[in-house]
Write a structure and sequence with these properties.
Elements lengths: L1 H17 L6 E2 L1 E6 L3 H9 L8 E2 L9 E2 L3 E2 L13 E7 L2 E7 L2 E5 L13 E5 L6 E6 L7 E3 L1 E2 L9 E7 L2 E13 L7 E14 L2 E12 L6 E6 L8 E5 L6 E2 L1 E5 L10 E5 L2 E2 L2
Parallel strand pairs: 1-12
Antiparallel strand pairs: 2-13, 3-16, 4-10, 5-9, 6-7, 6-10, 7-11, 8-9, 13-14, 14-15, 15-16, 17-18, 18-20, 19-22, 20-21
């Protein structure tokens, strides 16, 4: 039985990688339908991905991020207890970033362990667990303090866009792809060939960058977890759950400070986990 569970667990992981003090809040502007077909064609031609529809590359992202929960053995690395962690905390609509003491403890994994005495799982814990959205390993530009944020929709579907202003910069999140109702009388939308972009306009200069690309979804949709300034440079940073499978979670960190010259943002870290 243990071998069967482990086989199913690794199949799901492989599937995911292949298919795949008050804070100042800014005001979003509007949501609209994105139908500029000429612009869409130009963007697709300049994508870092084309037919494979898999972005970002999870294995190439260097920054470690985790959550406060219990995980399977290979989802937490042994050296994590030696790292310094910063927690992103939410209190109502306010956010803060603070260095946080994190504990890693071996515990029973009810999915993979054959007996109650086995302890192959990891329990990740810290104080103020209820308000901690994510833990990020310490980066040189992280400082303790309140984080300004902006309210944006949790999901952007194909042919939708959301325009907003943050720190005197104009941004637009928009998506391309295909969508259809699962059945004629159903409210459930099936999405495929999905791409999520961020358009940035600074002093009249426009840049457009791909954030996420997924070929298909299994009872899941891309979700934006956080939008605000994490790396203290007065520019937009994002945390997006890029998972395409209902039993997988993939919070992905996008920061502006490490972005290449002429770019506005860059994916730097991801934490892929399987529910069961």
């Amino acid at each position: 039985m243990k071998a069967v569970f482990k086989t199913l667990f690794f199949i799901i992981i492989i599937f995911q990688f292949i298919s795949c003090n008050n804070s100042k809040k800014e005001i979003a502007l509007k949501t609209e339908v994105y139908k500029d077909s000429d612009k869409e064609t130009e963007i697709v031609e300049n994508d870092p991905v084309k037919e494979e529809f898999s972005f970002p590359n999870d294995s190439a992202l260097p920054v470690k991020i985790i959550r406060l929960e219990t995980f399977h053995s290979d989802e937490i690395q042994e050296n994590y207890n030696k790292k310094v962690w910063f927690g992103l905390f939410k209190n109502k609509d306010n956010y803060s970033l603070a260095e946080t003491t994190v504990s890693f403890k071996r515990v029973n994994d009810p999915i993979l362990d054959e007996t109650d005495e086995e302890k192959t799982g990891w329990e990740v814990s810290a104080q103020a667990k209820d308000s901690c959205l994510i833990l990020i390993e310490k980066l040189p530009y992280f400082i303790d303090g309140n984080i300004s944020s902006v309210k944006i929709p949790e999901s952007i579907y194909p042919e939708e866009s959301f325009k907003f202003s943050y720190k005197n910069v104009e941004y637009t999140l928009f998506a391309t792809g295909k969508k259809k109702k699962e059945q004629q009388d159903s409210d459930w939308i099936v999405v495929s060939n999905y791409k999520l972009y961020l358009k940035t306009v600074v002093n009249g200069k426009e840049t457009t960058e791909l954030l996420v690309a997924k070929k298909n979804f299994d009872d899941q949709m891309i979700k934006i977890i956080f939008a605000g300034d994490l790396d203290d440079d007065n520019k937009l940073d994002l945390i997006i759950d890029t998972a395409s499978h209902y039993n997988v979670s993939s919070p992905t960190l996008y920061l502006s400070k490490p972005a290449e010259k002429g770019k506005a943002i860059k994916p730097v870290g991801v934490f892929v986990t399987v529910g069961c």
